[in-house]
Amino acid sequence: MGFFRIPPPRSAPASPPRWSPLLRGLPVYAGLAPLALILWSFLPARLLSNELQPIKYSIRILCYDPLIIYIVGFLSLEERKVLASIGQFQRSMTTIDGVVSTINPFRTSSTAFLPPNNTVVERITARASEFQGYSSRSKHEMLQLTRYETGQVFKPHVDPLVDDPRGPRNRFTTIFAIVEATCTECGTQFPNLRFDWAQEHPSWCEYVYCDKETLTIKAIPGNAVLWKSWDSSGRLDLGTLHAGLPPEKGTKIGLNIWTDA
């Protein structure tokens, strides 16, 4: 008997697998996935505002004197959608020699102050506070959108308003973030700052115009730049004189975050 191997009993033929109704419909659901993604992209931004994901940004010190810090990824795509949808733009006001005017070739862009109780606005204000060492929320002005259409400009200026009849605002720092940019040659230029980019790391050319000696920062959606408008002796730093260049084509929307001392 030891020389004969007894074959195992034959098992019954395997029955075909029984798929649950959910699994049977899986190919159909998979086929609808592209359509679902398209529909999601058209959802109103306000419906996305409560499901914002944490973001991670990185920084590069662009200049030490005056202090200018470049921030990559300061605003998320979802945040930018919300900001663009809630801005009620009006012609920008300009203060020159203590006179406030909305009609001045010095500044032809439009602006919109944002409601401070908006979830996204609160979130961005908190991020700006954290970035600056947890600056007091009471020191932050209302966030302001600024929009440039083709040919619109904001000529060289500094942000502190020391002679504004509505009340002085020292604006110790500015964070300027790009919400939208469908334009060309529409950067932010600092006419008093010069760089020889041939002597700098070529990675900078991703963020600035390396073919320009005058510091000109590209308008890249989601990225931002921070600068300190006052020097260590408490005087206005004219190195922070800057201009919003006129788009040759398209539109640029930026976000101003001003923090008082």
UniProtKB/TrEMBL annotation:
One of its GO terms (molecular function) is iron ion binding. Pfam families: 2OG-FeII_Oxy_3. Keywords: Dioxygenase, Iron, Metal-binding, Oxidoreductase. Residues 66-260 form the Prolyl 4-hydroxylase alpha subunit domain. GO terms for cellular component: endoplasmic reticulum. Its cofactor is L-ascorbate. The keyword Metal-binding applies. Signal peptide: none annotated. It comes from the Eukaryota. Transmembrane segments: none annotated. This is Putative prolyl 4-hydroxylase 10-like protein 3.
